[in-house]
User: Fold these one by one.
Assistant:
Number 1:
Amino acid sequence: MSRLKLPPWLVLLLPAIIILMAVVLVPLVLSFYSSFTAYQLTRPDSLTKWIGTFNYRKAAGDANFWWAFGRTVLLLTIALNLEMLLGLGLAVMVSKVTTGQRLLRTAMMFPMMFSPVLVGFQFKFIFNDNVGLVNNALQSLGLTDVAIPWLVDGHLAMFSIIFAEIWTSTSVFAILILAGLYAIPQDPVEAAKVDGCTPWQSFRFVTLPFLMPFIYIAMAIRSLDVARAYDIVQIMTNGGPARRTELLWTLIGRTAYVDARMGYANAMGYIAILLSIFFTIYFFRKLTAARSELGMGV
Amino acid sequence: MASNAEHRLRKRLLRIAHLTGLFLAMSLICLPGLWIVLNSFRPTVEIMAKPPVWIPNSLNLDHYRAMFGGVGEGGVPVLTYFRNSLIISVTSTLVALLVGMAGGYAFARYRFKGKAALFVGLMATRAVPGVALSLPLFIIMARAGIIDTHFGLILTYVALNVPFTVWLIDGFFRQVPRELAEAAEIDGCTRWQAFWKVEFPVARAGIASAGIFAFLTSWNEYALASQLTRSVNSKTMPVGLLDFTSQFTLNWGGMCALAVLMIIPALVLTFLVQKHLIAGLTFGGVKG
């Protein structure tokens, strides 16, 4: 009997592959299958009831689903771009400080340690219309005497959620961009100064291109768990008021666990999964491109 | 001369703008957390007061006492949640580190076909949103009878952390020169010995920070835990936070106290490894 000899790299990677197969891939195959059935959590026998692409067609014709989809993409676009800009600004400000930089850097990482659920509760408390910090401050300063319904009004609720999301994730960008700023070689920056560039020009044409890979790393890291917004929304508004802050993920969770319609939820879940994976691959591609542009990658 | 004075004025204005901006940004970052900490020490009457009480006139430990006081009178079994969180996070971190070390070493030291594709594939598994993954996992774990157990959640968290630990550890092993291990092998070490005696010690600090990152992910995770845990058997602290809510009321003070308990370990750990963590992410990403 000849023993199958595996190459060493495969042996080393095998545990990782096996565990990801068991916990991620196999469940995904199951959810793919069940998205073609009328599976309901309360009736296990319905798992074998094949209904073809009915769930997908239903999702395609479901206005709630498309609203949630559009809102998710909108939220991610606004949040990621603002986080990037604010993170860049914060990193530049911190890098210009001469004393106490260590302390600032540590404080900057503060929000990263917060569990997203905790962030949700924290901002639910802060934006509470009755006892929240924001309304208390506005009223004490005499700017308003009505209780502003931060989490009850549709638009304001969306604003509050985006605020919370940006609060947690800006530091990821800031920290990584700061690391990039430290790593910039000084020669090109000084050459630009000698050649008569204004500070803005040397930032735009020398510093920024160098920072791009770092920005893409941050984007790639963030895209790995964009769905952390689920926790925040779930706690702060639970998709309300009247579905005005419903995201794909909260819609899926509600359909699956509250309505117990697993098959339909899995069909929507698959669309959410493809969206996330698309984001991830897109940013990893960008990262590779930015890297080779700087001649760093092998 | 005039332009010189103007230049100086401009410089001073810029400096003031810089410091104000920095101060505002830092207040925005720090205030929400400090507000939570402050409220964990205030009696509920004061939290709910209208008009608001800005200068606290009685700080006490009531919420902490109630929290640790056990299950009586609407209390939440915080210590049990804390223990569950600790067991699950530590075990899953250790396993994810071992698996990640093997995988990261393979990516850093071997050349093989389809390496880039395999790497992105590994990362893509991490991108699957927790809620979407929780549905099929819930079905499978319910069938296998491991729902609401430590084991089920540990397994899930290992899978959640492996892509990230592989990525980080890969970056750290790349920083260790290949010649170092080769020299050890020439001196008569086996590859295994070379790894443990030469490469591992050099990359140790980086591996530790990958571990802390994994620990924090497990410690803070909610979307999966909220579906895969049911009772005090396995509920973790993020899920436990919801025990302070009932349909119409929220026990803000108690919740703030539990929040503080959750943040402290995270704070200490992050503080310890911040330097290595940034290095790991950037080296792994930029030079990978």
Number 2:
Amino acid sequence: MKVMNRKKWLAIGLTGAMAFSLVACSGNEKTEQSSASASSQPTSTESSESVAADPMGKYDPPIEITAVRPITEGTKFKEGESIDNNNWSKAYQESLGIKIKYNWTIATAQYDQKLNIAIASDDLPDVMEVNAAQLKRLVEDDQLEDLSSLYDQYAAPFTKEVLSQDGGNALKSGTFDGKQFALPKMGSGLGQTHVLWIRTDWLKKLQLSEPKTIDDVLKIAEAFTKQDPDGNKKDDTRGLGINKDIWGFYAAMEGFFNGFHAYPNVWVKDESGKLAYGSIQPQMKNALQKLQELYKAGQIDKEFGTKDASKVNEEANAGKLGMFYGYFWNSGWLQDGKLTNPEMEWTPYPLPSIDDQPAKAQVPFAINTYYVVKKGAKHPEASIKMLNLVLENIYGATANPEAYNVDKDGIAIFEYALLYGEAPRKNLDAHLNVMDALTAKDDSKLTAEEKGYYSNIMAYQGGDNQFWGSDKMYGEKGSLSVIEGYFKNQSLMNDEFFGAPTQTMIDNNATLQKLQLETFTRIIMGDSIDKFDEYVKKWKQLGGDEITKELNEWALAQK
Amino acid sequence: MTNLRFRRQFPYHLMILPGLLFILIYNYVPMTGIVMAFERFVPSKGMYLSPWVGWKNFEFMLNMPGIYQVIWNTVFIALMKIIAGVVVPVVITLLLYEAKSRWFKSSVQTIVYFPHFLSWIILGGIFVDILSPSTGMLNEFLGWFGIKPIYFLGDVNWFPFTLVGTETWKEFGYGTIVYLAALTGINPTLYEAATMDGAGRFKQAVHVTLPGLLPMIVLMTILSLGNVLNAGFDQVFNLYSAQVYRSGDIIDTLVYRIGMEDANYGVATAVGLFKSVVSFVMISVSYGLAYRFTSYRIF
């Protein structure tokens, strides 16, 4: 008996030992790798001077750059091509003399995690993309190359233009203590501003005029609810759509609040020039009060609290809803309704205002990815040159989008580029270019992407409702023309905070979000409006004051 | 002697090894992640290098405003679900057992089992429609009896019961199958003897069928007691909204908001560990009680 017991324990011990050694092995491997890479770190910075500061200058002899990167799920390659052999790898080699060696590539979803491991084991490549939190961490740990002077020298004029098209915040967000450590991956905050979508066929039927002020909006909401705009003699239509989260991209209320000069969920500058949280400003109260009245009058769905955006969309497509605030691409979601009922017509309008001051649409900060260079990399300027080439080949004067952006078969070539960015005005410019082409009846000057929109709009004008949604975005009275209007008149309100979240923000976000959503929902549903003042007080107590202080310190450090 | 037997059996014991390894690697090794509950976890530093903060995450959790309301919501909803999850299937099983037609029995069984396979993502959307006070089927039905529309998903008082009701509706078919299976283990001679003693159908159900089911009822209850802090994340997440936070926000939804949306992994792990410890204690206690009262052991 005893013997058996001993052996049994031996077996179990053995099992344990094996499992342990397995784990231990993988651990060892990692440390070996990192020590190897540490020892092979570059020792000198040669040759870069010989090329002078030419943004597009070719390295001769060619150089090799190490990198890691995520690969978007579903990325396709042409026959015989791979991430190491494609139009972009060839362009880097032929135009710039840069050969990229990928230490590893991984699906986008796992990239952050894998990179965190690489950071933890000090196994960084020359160039990589990081998120805001990783950027902050790497800068604090002094692991990144300062790109400030290199950016001035090597960034092409067009690159500088694109990277500062948002007013400079993108670049600033990659700058710490006056040193630029990152090249932001540009994207568009303008695409996340609100427009007001209205059933214009109902508007015509009830002989109402287009909305200029919030009062007009309220009148329209009332008429759409009470005057039976769909003519079915039933009380089954509603004026204004809201989703249960109140905020977001569809049937959301940011646009409505903006009309009251209130800017929920973003940081704005108060009179003294200090950063202040938009959601606690007194203007919010007026907007909430009005929403409460709309709710009481049945012009907002009594059950909005349980309906998410796609539920509200079902109602819009079923012809039960006449108006909502949302993003420019919402016409895509309304396409089904248009196909079932061709009479249905939605038109986007700029945000109406409560007074004679025009409403400013709030613009969230659009950058969440940065390109950085490891401290001590041999050719730190190479990444800037590669970005020059990417922006030039895709959007620049000598662009060849079919070879470098999206080819004839719809293969997304731009996915192969190591550094990438989208000009914040891309969609707006596409709209303008398509409009020009439509007047000239000539699409020869358009990029491949724009040609697609052009032919969609032509098809819609030819009577094919399938492309109605495209026309409502890129066409003459499309939503992008509305946003272009915001841009031209500068009726935009940027989120003034664009750094990595502070510790207090991380600690208290869940509580503060819950507090806000619960309070606002209940106020709209009939709670006393004084609850707003209570909310402000609580928000300040529960970390809000601390966050405000931290962000103002951050803002000072930005200057 | 024993030595010989062991030697003969050794190859068979060896066959357990892959399974053991599997459990060790995938179930035990990841438990080291518990250390995150005592750290201010920084992803770039990893589990072993993140700064140690001791019980700070737990303090933070217990000092969060409204945390006791959330814990209470969780326990209340979970306990109601456990009770309903035992009572309803047992009653249905007893009723089904009495049904004569095999065809009727198996079709009912299949129909009630079916919702078990639907995910809450889908059901969430369906229930918003069915339970709507203005256009919902259920309120229309209640209206026939003169009952005023009830906002099941939006009323703070009704919401927990809506959760329990919908969860029970979804899962009772599964429980019924388990109990029906247990019934096949009851010795038929017991029924014969009961009939001899003059027991009718009802008496038979109470004195033969129910005691025969008891071990299974105890087992299922014990297993579910470990869930006393699991009020059902999928369900609540898909059905709740800001207006019912007061009675519907549970630990898991809170952890989700802290962990996934705010990337506050340390606190999220601490809350998870807290839940596991409570569950462990609950299971141990109920196991002891079960042994004491029914002399039934699972392990």
